[in-house]
Automatic annotation (TrEMBL):
<dbReference type="GO" id="GO:0004489">
    <property type="term" value="F:methylenetetrahydrofolate reductase [NAD(P)H] activity"/>
</dbReference>
<comment type="pathway">
    <text>Amino-acid biosynthesis; L-methionine biosynthesis via de novo pathway.</text>
</comment>
<dbReference type="InterPro" id="IPR004620">
    <property type="entry name" value="MTHF_reductase_bac"/>
</dbReference>
<keyword id="KW-0486">Methionine biosynthesis</keyword>
<keyword id="KW-0285">Flavoprotein</keyword>
<comment type="pathway">
    <text>One-carbon metabolism; tetrahydrofolate interconversion.</text>
</comment>
<dbReference type="InterPro" id="IPR003171">
    <property type="entry name" value="Mehydrof_redctse-like"/>
</dbReference>
<dbReference type="Pfam" id="PF02219">
    <property type="entry name" value="MTHFR"/>
</dbReference>
<dbReference type="InterPro" id="IPR029041">
    <property type="entry name" value="FAD-linked_oxidoreductase-like"/>
</dbReference>
<keyword id="KW-0560">Oxidoreductase</keyword>
<keyword id="KW-0520">NAD</keyword>
<protein>
    <recommendedName>
        <fullName>Methylenetetrahydrofolate reductase</fullName>
        <ecNumber>1.5.1.54</ecNumber>
    </recommendedName>
</protein>
<keyword id="KW-0274">FAD</keyword>
<comment type="similarity">
    <text>Belongs to the methylenetetrahydrofolate reductase family.</text>
</comment>
<keyword id="KW-0028">Amino-acid biosynthesis</keyword>
Amino acid sequence: ILNQNIADLKGDLNVSFEFFPPTSEAMEDTLWQSIDRLKTLKPKFVSVTYGANSGTRDRTHSVIKEIKDRTGLVAAPHLTCIDASKDELKQIALDYWNSGIKNIVALRGDIPAGSDKPHMYATDLVRLLKEQADFDISVAAYPEVHPEAKNAQADLLAFKDKMDAGADRAITQFFFDVESYLRFRDRCAAIGITQEIVPGILPVSNYKTLVKFSKLCNVKVPGWMHKLYDGTDNDPTTRNLIGASIAMDMVKVLGQEGVKDFHFYTLNRSELSYAICHTLGLRP
Ligand code: FAD
């Protein structure tokens, strides 16, 4: 398997990179260095996450505009329904459209703890966006089931509705169990979802944080990963190499299973995502 090349994919390969709005000057420098390096791989689009408070919202907007102006890349802001009225969402959508931003990652967002306000689902946001203009829309998918879903079947049916509302593709929550992605993709196909289910690849550099975060997201961290990272708490270099190696193995298997689109959760760093794309056959 190791010697089997998947570089033949090259022609049809699409990658996208996700960033978050930086909160300090140092972080801003890192972000731009990363964008400058990753843009050479000609991503299909790059996206910028959207936080739950208005400060981060404005930053998403300004980072997206800057990426578009400075690099000419297709830049897709994430947009959530949390704490925004339908009118506000319509206005945000129109502002994006009028400034030439036509790709959006549409999400519900996480409900703030203790909130019992009625809320929209991502499906409602997809419909609202499509009513404003013909946006290219990505939505979220959960191969290992969204933590709030009643069960896997209910989650899948809600996901089908969201795709039918007008999504162009779905990007998955990160995962490490490739089988869970492949089974999910099969179940999507079986109920008639035809859009691409793009695997979200998280190259892991901070293992301890990952373990905590994965629990919240209902993502399995397999036992073999615990063994691999064991003893690396104070060794970031080794952790990075392990993270890259795991993701390289994953994309290789996914490529062999016919996956041609990959989304990378870069955490604003370029090294690991760049190296993983290189092993997929991508060159500047
Ligand atoms: P939905 O698709 O609305 O689903 C939420 C839950 O509701 C699921 O359990 C679903 O089964 C259920 N459901 C859906 N429709 C119905 C219905 N009609 N009746 C009953 N139940 C229903 N969060 C951010 O805050 N900012 C970001 O930038 C961000 N980016 C993300 C990017 C990706 C690729 C992914 C995978 C997630 C991202 N998130 C982000 C996290 C996301 O906001 C949370 O996972 C959130 O809890 C769910 O959002 P959703 O769009 O998947 O919701």
